[in-house]
Specification:
alpha/beta, eight-stranded mixed sheet, Rossmann fold, homodimer, 15 strands, elongated, 2 domains, 440 residues
Chain lengths: 440, 440
């Protein structure tokens, strides 16, 4: 297997062709390693096989050249797992409504793999998950795979199993899949060796750790660190605001310390499918050991509160002008969860719309990257992005800046809006100051 | 005043010649600006005037050359404040027993300054403190200075007042007073201009902010950030330990992420006179606004618990060997609060000694930089550092590594100790692995 990998005579199967699986597949294909992408979504498969794209931040050209060269193809026929040497699992790990891990995608995928697993195959899980998933959930399923002669598959000998967390950061201008070091933990030393050899073909640097659970914990630490630090500045934002101190100015000043400080910024709430979700995988697992993860809980509490804080602040601002929130016409600027992307997963803008509507406001939104709000797991809005003109902007009682897209005409907005609530310091950072702009 | 500063024709008075005031005074003196150091401690004054030092990390040679050249002298006669153009306050801001700000040093210093303040003088506070100190506590005292004709001193005109937080990091090999950018907030624009001109003479870069309270908040943010992140890894250490995951390995692996992650390390508790103390200045002030600072409280709770955790872990380890803590002979390695310094302020080693003794252990310590434990505010031990030999090390039931001084003979200790509890990952990081070493 090691030789086969080094000679690039392997075929890699990737399950889940989304934000993680697609760029990974392209990375392998660009190194002339054959990739079969597996996905349940027929639509995705057909688009992919036409050499087209469906994620804004991944250039369609990359996909078309990978498909044309024959190194990338896609299928929804999972029996073709028999054709591959390595299987990489890149499926979602969301939370249930009660903030518990929803392991259904991982579990179902592992079951499908167990249907087809053959001797010598490598299986790697990349989905962010609680420590223990690979060894406790996946390993038993594969040991008892259909071809195992009644549970006689021995890991590290008959098949290889490892965990290697994805570290995708869509739209990061400096780093992409191949240039981000990759942590790997194998169930056995053989598992680690094979998985490392595979990733060494495409990733700039692999980082072996002692076990899959160490690798699982690594990814969680990275995201817990972000969640906690964002919550910390969100809390300080609220405290400093009462003291008539601008948290943005304070963060900028602290950033001049050349050691021991890293800047994080407040905002209207967490978004995306990692930071708001992943930390609770550890919380859930910790309960098994009769432990609480207090920082994660507190960070969750404060970050979840942020959209509510923005609405309260908006209500206060309107109140200064003797206007009630109930009945006010409000424009939300930005629907995506971070700037210059079209991804709305867990976007705080969606939560803002919900809370504002509950309180009786008439809400519209504008986002050049999100033409309309589709039905989502938690929301079902029938809304389309409105066009912006001077006249239109002036028409709203309040404009809330939720996502700081670069393409907004901040000057036009500041000059024409009646009142602005800015959750990203977007105006002042562009030297646009005005009495009608309030931070939240 | 601005011209006088630029021509270096000023005299700078520094009140408090400790960890902050002494290096600052040396920085001015090295630029041929005359400095008078004020301190209540006669002993310090007399040592300084002899051109000698009293802080291990500040070379005595620097002091002797500053004193010989005539640019640095020291006095405990505060009436000589009349001789200076600028007064910089570098006095301690500790906590009371009830974890509230002890502002007595700052307040008494401001009162003394008010006795002598004359027209045209600049006063700068550098002590870490709650937002509002400069404007609410010091300003009124100076406006009503003795020479003010019944409260007629106008700030920004008759005298200047600013806050500029110290950012000292003793023993940092890369940065010292002059090379660390300095944040400054003035009560008025004139105050800022004058204070900035002064520091621009010696500091590589000055960072003006809009107000003293923004500058006060900046320093607190820097230290709150550290306190919270250290507490976070301390919590994760305890959680991961139960999951049989080594937090040190996880932190090292996470550090390979080239963006969005900064490593902090767990330990036996916080030490020094900044991180364990400063955050609570904000907590105290926030209460005035009916707000809680939840992250600071949680960080305090978890960090304060760490020495207790180390003792619990030690008890568990001894228990494995059927040995009780009560009656056990224990050696603490390291008394200083961080490696390679001789500073014991708030050192967790002192707390460890206390808890271990309470539980009946016989405790000794070894620290090449701390020959004996003097009487301190919270502790009064009559202990001297013991010498270490093979035989001596083997004599203890348990050795607890508390401070990871570089000079320890880790190999000798590992080979001869019966059992080791390592709170700093000091052995494994030196590739010393053994069954008798346990992490805590």
């Amino acid at each position: 297997m090691l030789k086969k990998i080094k000679d690039k005579k392997i075929v890699v199967g990737i399950i889940g062709m989304g934000y993680v699986g697609l760029p990974l597949g392209l990375a392998f294909a660009s190194k002339k390693i054959k990739v079969i992408g597996f996905d349940l979504d027929q639509e995705k498969i057909s688009v992919l096989n036409k050499g087209k794209g469906y994620l804004k931040h991944i250039p369609a050209k990359k996909i078309s050249s990978a498909v044309k060269s024959g190194y990338l193809s896609a299928t929804s026929n999972f029996s073709r797992l028999k054709e591959v040497d390595a299987i990489i699992i890149c499926v979602p790990t969301p939370l249930t409504e009660h903030r518990e891990p929803d392991m259904s995608y991982v579990k179902n995928t592992a079951k499908v793999i167990a249907e087809y697993l053959k001797r010598g195959q490598l299986v790697v899980l990349e989905s962010t998950t609680y420590p223990g998933t690979t060894e406790e959930l996946i390993l038993p399923l594969l040991e008892n795979a259909k071809n195992s002669d009644n549970g006689n598959f021995v890991v590290g000998k008959d098949f290889y199993l490892a965990f290697s967390p994805e570290r995708e950061d869509p739209n990061n201008p400096d780093y992409s899949t191949a240039s981000i070091p990759k942590v790997i933990g194998g169930v056995t030393q053989q598992c680690l060796d094979v998985a490392k050899a595979l990733y060494d073909q495409v990733i700039i640097k692999t980082v072996p750790v002692s076990s899959p659970r160490a690798a699982e914990a690594t990814k969680l630490l990275e995201n817990i660190f972000r969640s906690v630090n964002i919550a910390l500045v969100n809390e300080l934002k609220m405290v400093f605001d009462k003291m008539d101190i601008d948290v943005w100015e304070v963060i900028e000043a602290a950033s001049t310390k050349p050691f021991g400080f890293t800047a994080f910024y407040p905002g209207p709430g967490l978004g995306g499918h990692c930071i708001p979700i992943d930390p609770f995988y550890l919380t859930w697992k910790a309960r098994e050991f009769e432990l609480n993860t207090k920082f994660i809980e507190l960070a969750g509490e404060i970050n979840t509160y942020q959209p509510h804080y923005v609405v309260e602040k908006s209500m206060e601002v309107l109140n200064k002008f003797k206007k009630a929130l109930n009945g006010a016409k409000i424009l939300i600027l930005g629907a995506a969860y971070k700037k210059d992307i079209d991804d709305m997963r867990e976007s705080p803008s969606l939560k803002l719309i919900e809370i504002l509507r509950e309180k009786g406001a008439e809400v519209e939104y504008h986002d050049p990257l999100v033409a309309s709000l589709p039905r989502m797991r938690n929301y079902n809005y029938d809304m389309e992005s409105v066009d912006l003109s001077k006249k239109k902007v002036a028409d709203y009682d309040l404009v809330i800046l939720s996502t700081d897209h670069s393409s907004f005409d901040y000057k036009l907005i500041a000059e024409n809006a009646k009142i602005i609530v800015d959750t990203r310091n977007s105006f002042e950072s562009r030297s646009i100051n005005s009495d009608n702009i309030f931070k939240a």
